[in-house]
Amino acid sequence: MSKREEKPDPKPPAQELTPPNIIRVETALSRYPVHRLAKQGSMSIEIRDESEDGETLIKWEVSPSVNYGQPGPLAYKIDTLIVNRRIEEASRPIPKIIKLGSLRDICEELGIGTGESVNKVKNALRQNASAFITAKFCYRGNDGSERTLEADFNRYSVVFTGEELPNGRKANAVYLVLNEIFMQVLDGAQTRPLDYEYLKGLNPSSQRLYEILSYRIYAAIRNGRPHAKLVYSELCTYAPLTRYEDWKSVGWQLSKIHAPHKESGYIASVEFEEIFDRDGKPDWVMIYTPGDKARDEYRTFSQQGGPRTLHVDLPANSTLASLTFDEPPQPEPTPLERELIARGISRRTAAQLVQRYPADRILSQIERFDWSKAREPKSIAKSDGGFLAEAIRNDYPMPSGFESKADREQREAAEKLKKQQEREKAQQARAAKHREAELDRKAFERWESLSAGERMAVEAAALAATDDDIRKNYEKSPPKFKRPFLERIRQGYLRQVIEQEEPARKKEK
Predict the structure, then answer these.
(1) What is the domain count for the chain?
(2) CA atoms of 135 and 59, how far apart (whole Å)
(3) Whether residues 457 and 499 fall in one domain
(4) Backbone torsions φ then ψ of 19, nearest 5 degrees
(5) I need a labelling partner for 249 at 20 to 30 A (CA). Which of 139, 326, 492, 501 fits?
């Protein structure tokens, strides 16, 4: 494994660290992504993991609204800085209706202008409210127990100024009406402390790293460990971020995300150990050394009622959860497993599918997938690997117009045979035409070589050998047509004579 280290930034002048303004965020839902962090485009948010026996351990899918779009960076800021702040300030148990303030108040709190931004904030709130979540996962409750959430839900509804609240009153500001499932998680999950003012000053990607990394750094300091670890592929999944496989792109991407944390002193340094994930793709373990700000946060959080022990739940599919750098290499995937891996299925899931389902079923669904991918790519609603795995598990029926490999090979063989027969027929026709021309030439040359007496004998023999009806027609024909008629009879006769002579000549040779 190769080891890399980001070049340290010039050390900033010594400065007194501002005491953290604490906000406590639940650790159940907030660990999973809802928003794309890039300013443009869209990103599918789908996380799945299964046990060895095929049981779903983690399922997290976010379906954005068609009308309002996928929640982006502004919606993320509203959720993490405004909504979470109001929830933090609310009493316990969490009330169903929470007041955010006017759209202008929200803009000012976010530090953005109140012109066009008002409408952007309004749309971002709608994006958050309409983001539909399908979830199944376990989390640790605030009483230390392990709990399970399996549900399909929106987190909250939004009521704008002048609209009617569930209690019948007119809203005098922007309010959220929390979903019951969302409220149960907020009331029952553990929380982790974050520095609210620090969050506000970070760009979305760096903020998300802080949210994911903070409790690992907190636990590392609490347990006297010098480092906190995070795997690059997991950051890309849970942020979410575009995952790269070459170090140059990875280093460029992470240097921008790490920069504000190194400048603030939250991270003292970062090292990278290159590994490979379950599918054999390049990956990196990021090894963070906590900086002065992180240690200052720990002291403040501990003094102000932070948790005495912070349990770090690694995702079920975490590389760190099972990472042993000296472990023996896994067996090489079978040819059928390689076919699945090549189409986006993880190496472990591919092995499970091959063990669980008949090979002909898997091959049939691979054919179906390839056919749909080539002709109807929009029919693959999920990621390639997710779609194909579900197709194998549920034995999807073949789509209209689908042609299996066996049927295609049979059709192509029939078409090939037909074309070959047509070519042979054309060749035979050309050969027959050539033969006819050759016989005509030889008959003409034979006639030209005969003397007058021999010609009379040939014409007499031709008339004698011809069909009775043809001979009668010749005899009845007008004088001016007799000579051409006789020439045709004689030419046919000479051709027959030549054809009969040729086998004998070939035998003599």
Answers:
(1) 4
(2) 5
(3) yes
(4) -55, 135
(5) 326
Q: Are 92 and 81 in contact (CB under 8 A)?
A: no
Q: Is residue 315 part of a domain?
A: no
8-state DSSP, 342: T
Q: Are residues 269 and 227 in the same domain?
A: yes
Secondary structure of the chain: what % helix, strand, coil (to 5)? 50, 15, 30
- 299 and 353 housed in the same domain: no
439 contacts: CB under 8 Å, gap ≥ 6: 495, 498, 499
Same domain assignment for residues 71 and 10 = no
User: What domain range includes position 300?
Assistant: 1-22+193-310
Q: Among 161, 75, 59, which Cα is nearest to 110's?
A: 75
51 lies in the same domain as 169: yes
Domain end position, chosen among 147, 171, 189: 189
Q: In what order do the strands lie in the sheet with 146-153?
A: 45-50, 56-63, 132-140, 146-153
Length of the chain: 509
CB 352 within 8 A of CB 52: yes
Which residue reads 């809203």 in tokens? 171
Show the DSSP H helices in 29-71 as ranges. none
Per-residue pLDDT of the chain in tens (509 residues, 90 and over written 9): 556 666 555 555 444 455 678 888 998 999 999 999 988 888 899 999 887 767 888 999 999 999 999 999 999 999 999 999 999 999 888 999 999 999 999 999 999 988 889 999 999 999 999 999 999 999 989 888 889 999 999 999 999 999 999 999 999 999 999 999 999 999 999 888 899 999 999 999 999 999 999 988 988 998 889 999 999 999 999 999 999 998 889 999 999 999 999 999 999 999 888 888 888 888 999 999 999 999 998 888 877 555 444 455 555 555 555 444 333 455 788 999 999 988 888 777 788 889 889 999 999 999 888 888 888 777 775 567 778 888 898 898 888 878 777 788 888 888 999 999 999 999 999 998 998 899 889 989 989 999 989 999 988 998 889 998 988 898 888 988 888 998 899 888 998 888 888 776 666 65
Of 366, 313, 329, 386, the C-alpha closest to 47 is 386
Please answer whether residues 132 and 62 qualify as being in contact, where contact means their C-beta atoms are separated by less than 8 angstroms.
yes
- Is 274 within a domain? yes
Task: For residues 87 and 35, state if they share a domain.
Answer: yes
Asked if residue 133 and residue 32 are part of one domain, the reply reads yes
Identify the three-state secondary structure at position 20. Answer: coil
Q: Same domain for 40 and 169?
A: yes
- CB-based contacts of 102, cutoff 8 Å, min separation 6: 161, 173, 174
Residue 244 lies in a domain: yes
User: Which helix (H) or strand (E) covers residue 394, if one does?
Assistant: helix 384-394
Q: How far is CA 135 from CA 162, 185, 345, in A?
A: 33, 12, 20
SS3 36: coil
Domain boundary among 189, 216, 232: 189
Instruction: With H, G, I as helix, E, B as strand and everything else as coil, classify residue 283.
Output: strand
386 in Cβ contact with 392 (< 8 Å): no
